[in-house]
Amino acid sequence: MDTTVLILLFLSSLPLFYLLAKQKPPKKKLPPGPFGFPVIGQSLSLFRALRTNTGEQWLEQKVRKFGPVLKLSLFGHPTVFLAGQAANKLVFGNDTLTPRQTRSFTSIMGRQTMREMIGDDHRRLRAAFGQFLKPDVLKKYVSKIDEEVRYHIKMNWTGQQTVTVTPLMKCLTFDIMCSLIFGLDRGDTRQALATELVDMVAGMWSIPLNIPFTRFNKSMKASRRARRILSKVIQERRRNLDHGLCSPHADLITCLLSLNQEGCGNEALSEEEIIDNTIFAMVAGHDTTAVLITFMIRQLAKDPAIHAKVAREQEGIAKSKTPGETLTWDDLNKMKYTWRVALETLRMIPPVFGSFRKALKDVEFNGYLIPKGWHVFWASSMTQMNADIFHEPHKFDPTRFENQSSIPPYCFIAFGGGSRICPGNEFARIETLVAMHYIVTQFRWKLSGEDDGFTRYPLPSPSQGLTIKLEPKGDM
């Protein structure tokens, strides 16, 4: 290990040493488990596991050794890992555990996001997003998403013998988000924002030392450039609203700028809050949906029977449409089997492997103490791949979701849970179903190449981008 890495790890671990030195010996029992090597902790070990897609096994090994409540050191913080249904209920249902991302994430994405806020600030921001994501507004966005998907397929899929799915899905979801979050048409501004977004995401789980040539430094520079772009967009939207040139619900930015006292409390959102939250929405909605669609396409290539059922459902809807007619909200509600395939994909390959909370005060769980200031880490796979909850968890079976009420609470947590459940899950459903409709009805495909593996750093991604061979179906 070179000197630079050691220095970075030492600096990132200072909060751990400070907290441990400051705290008095606890009267209650701490969870079992070692903090790991001085300075390094288990951060590098977790990084390696995620890159090789063995993160689930990495955690299971620790749970077998120490139990479902254990302590470790991650990203320079004393951390308690919790596993199981009761643990998920604690994480998502206890206000004393507040969401807390790594310092690199908050530095790049911003500190005024809905994900980081608590109490009244969180409720105010969530209500603000609710204006953009309420059902009667979402219904109006279906045609815009339909337009973006059709244009994407025409420009990138039609006439091609092979395509690489991962980068194309990221381009598609980025274009959708640009249209509906920022109201940006295709052009130089959208392309510039796309470039900055790629560099921002690359550093979200990096060591947060802002010195030249580090991944974190590159991401921070990209974040500053993206903020300058968005500041100009906000100023333009504000002028358009003042002169009645656009609707308050034209995109997310106009929704946030248009908030009134009746709509979202007494305090308007600052420009910094709007920028932080639009960046957060962009990152959260862009990569996660791209991951879901990519792995659905991968699964359908591997499972002809499920592919045939999805195709029958989608072709039936396509035959009911006149040439050129866009999909509607009612059409999406008919795609029940396709959405079950999506949910099963999310169960087996959740876009978010896990996340962090921070204890605002001492918390007792299962006989152990989680001290104030410590981080809590949870992982989706601990329940979603648990054979006691989901029979034969490694078998892909969409029928599990025919009756979602039969799934025990806090066991399927692909969208989180409790008061902080993902507010954009319905938006993601629209994106996913519209994209799959046009891909399934226009093409047949099979995997190109034998390498079917994928990595999870920071999000799941096929090792070689998932190249597929295409065969057009022709007109319906």
TrEMBL record:
Family classification: Belongs to the cytochrome P450 family.
GO MF entries: heme binding; iron ion binding; monooxygenase activity; oxidoreductase activity, acting on paired donors, with incorporation or reduction of molecular oxygen
Transmembrane segments annotated in the record for this chain: none
Keyword Cell cycle: no
Keywords: Heme, Iron, Metal-binding, Monooxygenase, Oxidoreductase, Signal
InterPro entries found in the cross-reference section: Cyt_P450, Cyt_P450_CS, Cyt_P450_E_grp-I, Cyt_P450_sf
GO biological process, one term: sterol metabolic process
Keyword Cell division: no
Signal peptide coordinates: 1-21
Needed cofactors: heme
Entry protein name: Cytochrome P450 716B1-like
Residues that, per the record, bind heme: C422
